[in-house]
Amino acid sequence: MWPNTIYTQELFGPVAIFYIVESEDEVIALANATPFGLGGSVFLSDLDRGRRVAERAESGMVFVNHPTWSAPELAFGGIKNSGYGRELSDLGFGEFVNRRLVSLAPHKLLTQVEHHTCAQS
């Protein structure tokens, strides 16, 4: 879809790629066409427009008027081929906890369900 083959790779380091586009929809299409989604940035003088663009971007982290970065209070993590889940911040605590689901049903409800199932057989 895009002429530069580097677009289909996940880059780490001091690298910047610039594309010239004609519309906001084309920006979103370009940003979302990648198989990766760790983080991205958008730079605009209109913060409301920046928020709209950021909300449409398929990325685990989107920064408006700031380069992608990490800090302990920010949830870190990607989507697509860039992973799942979150590290850091309060969202990251759940990634290191083994949770158990215990579901209790009232005995009367359980009896009704069992009886109903038996009646259908």
What can you tell me about this protein's structure?
With 121 residues, this protein is an alpha+beta fold. The chain has one domain. The protein is 31% helix and 10% strand. The strands form two sheets. A two-stranded antiparallel sheet has the order 1-4. A two-stranded parallel sheet has the order 2-3. The radius of gyration is 22 Å and the shape is elongated. The protein starts with 23 loop residues before the first helix and ends with a helix.
Short description:
The chain is of the alpha+beta class. Helices cover 31% and strands 10% of the residues.
From the structure above, extract its key features.
alpha+beta, 4 strands, two-stranded antiparallel ribbon
Secondary structure elements and their pairing?
Blueprint (H helix, E strand, L loop, with lengths): L23 H9 L3 E2 L1 E4 L4 H10 L4 E4 L14 E2 L8 H5 L13 H14 L1
